[in-house]
Design goal:
alpha/beta; globular; Rossmann fold; 5-stranded parallel beta sheet; disordered C terminus; 2 domains
């Protein structure tokens, strides 16, 4: 293998980090709930729903897609079966747009030909829903994920939120499958505004950043760094060493998606520079490369920073300012 071939192979291995995923114990608990929902009695009127929420980059989508990949469609002479389905909510996520997106992702032959009306105060399901539910029964759908459901939230229009909640309630009432909706913490508003939808909830799970001062969560975070280090095409870079782990935690704010992005960018720099492993300078450059505000505090330069206690992240990535902190000490979810 030539030097260039070797570099290309290493680069591909580094770029694969963007899809890196490890099932730590907290995620296994949620996967078990997915299993229970898929296997339960989902006859009409018996289905239920679950909310999975948390900040961006906390691993929600990767958790879901990993589960979907473990339950691929089954092709057969008598037709295809697709027990587990992933839907990404469109933007804007109106009831009409969402149901047409579901039809498309289910593989309905004419999704755009299905036309829907709007809920009135005394209205019920769209014609689209009847078509979608019938097609889902043909496919044998048992569990449907709708990701990024927070896009249904309109800060200026409470009626839009109620329309979306009513759609989900009617979908669960009529479906022969369970529903998992996922999004940022603002997605809780959809359930808070609709008592009947809340009554259908089978689970409410939140993915939060790894807190450094929580002994168990810190141990899990360090274990994940150790495993990630072992998957890189280098000599071990010491990502889980005490000093390095603190710096990575501060840089990523405890969000596993931010860790993967940081290590991918640092790894690419290491390959380009023919380095034997990821060095501190690669992490410093990778952090600055993706920083929204250039020239701010860089956790990979200077003495080891002190990890801060991460407050529970507010909906939709609002800036967290702890009393008495300077501007460069603000965490940005």
């Amino acid at each position: 293998m030539t030097t260039e071939d070797s570099k290309s192979a290493r680069m591909r291995a580094v770029e694969a980090i963007r899809a890196w995923y490890v099932r730590y114990p907290g995620l296994e608990t949620i996967r078990q709930q997915f299993d229970r929902m898929r296997d339960r009695d989902n006859s009409p009127g018996e289905s239920g729903c679950m909310l999975l929420h948390g900040p961006s980059r906390s691993g929600k989508t990767r958790l879901i897609t990993d589960y979907v990949e473990d339950h691929p469609p089954v092709r057969g002479e008598d037709g295809d079966r697709q027990e587990v389905v992933y839907i990404k909510a469109p933007y804007p996520c109106t009831p009409k747009n969402l149901m047409e997106q579901v039809a498309r992702d289910l593989g309905h032959p004419r999704p755009n030909a299905i036309r829907t009306g709007r809920y009135g105060r005394g209205g019920r399901l769209f014609d689209t829903m009847d078509v979608v539910l019938s097609y889902a029964r043909e496919l044998g759908v048992r569990l449907m994920f709708i990701d990024e459901i927070h896009q249904m939230i309109d800060q200026k229009n409470n009626r839009a939120v109620m329309d979306g909640a009513t759609l989900l309630k009617d979908l669960v009432n009529e479906a022969t499958f369970c529903l998992v909706v996922s999004g940022t913490s603002s997605a809780k508003r959809i359930f808070e505004c609709h008592e009947e939808l809340r009554g259908r909830m089978l689970g409410n799970f939140e993915l939060q950043p790894f807190q450094w001062y929580d002994v168990d969560r810190r141990a899990t975070f360090i274990t994940l760094l150790e495993r990630l280090d072992g998957e890189l095409p280098f000599a071990r870079s010491g990502l889980a060493d005490d000093d390095m782990a603190v710096r990575i935690h501060v840089a990523s704010r405890g969000l596993i998606g931010e860790v993967a992005k940081l290590i991918e960018n640092a790894g690419i720099l290491a390959v380009q520079q023919d380095a034997p492993r990821i060095l501190m300078r690669h992490l410093a450059e990778a952090f600055e490369m993706a920083a929204l505000e250039k020239g701010g505090a860089n956790p990979f330069l200077g003495p080891t920073p002190k990890p801060q206690k991460l407050d529970a992240l507010p909906p939709d990535g609002l800036i967290i300012r702890r009393p008495g902190t300077r501007g460069d000490e603000i965490f940005r979810p």
